[in-house]
C-alpha cells in the first residue's frame, strides 16, 4: 500500500464552493493549469513550484483526493497570459479577457488582499503571475 502523507498540500482557491468547483474540474480532467500571483509567493515566503514536484490535491474539507505533479511553471507578466493557458484552466473561459476578469475578481478579493497584507492591492498588466501546468497521477479513494 502506498502512502502519500509526506507530500505537501496542493490548494486551489480558498475552502468553499470555488475550491470544490476547481477540484472537480481537476478530477474531471478539464483543469490542467492554474495561475497564482507571484507577489503572494513572496508574501508567504513560499518557493515557486518546480516541474516534477508532487503534491496532494485537497478539497474544501481538507481531504486528499488526488496526487498531482507539476509539469511546467512560468513566471510572466499578467498581460502575457495566452488563450491556451486560459483554456487549460478548465473553467469554461472563452477568451483571455474573460479569464482575466474572473481572476482579477479573485485577486482583488478581501481574502487575497489580506494574504498579501495590502487592503488596496490591485493587479495590472505588469503584475507577475505564476502559470503552472499539472497532471493527476493518482486519484485517491474517498475516505
Give a verbal description of the structure:
The longest helix is centred in the first third of the chain and has 12 residues, at 17-28. Helices cover 31% and strands 27% of the residues. It is an alpha+beta fold.
Question: How are the elements arranged and paired?
Answer:
Layout: E1 9-10, H1 17-28, E2 33-37, H2 38-44, E3 54-58, E4 64-77, H3 83-88, H4 96-107, H5 110-116, E5 128-139
Parallel strand pairs: 1-3
Antiparallel strand pairs: 2-5, 3-4, 4-5
Spans with pLDDT under 50 lasting ≥5 residues? none
What is the CA-atom radius of gyration, in angstroms?
15 Å
Average pLDDT for all residues? 94
Q: Describe the global form.
A: globular
Q: Beta-strand level of the residues, as a percent range? A: 25-35%
Give me the strand/helix succession.
EHEHEEHHHE
Largest sheet: 5 strands, mixed
Distance N terminus to C terminus? 15 Å
* Helix/strand/pairing category: alpha+beta
Q: How many strand units?
A: 5
Largest beta sheet: what is the strand line-up? 1-3-4-5-2
Question: What's the tally of helices?
Answer: 5
How helical, in percent, are the residues? 25-40%
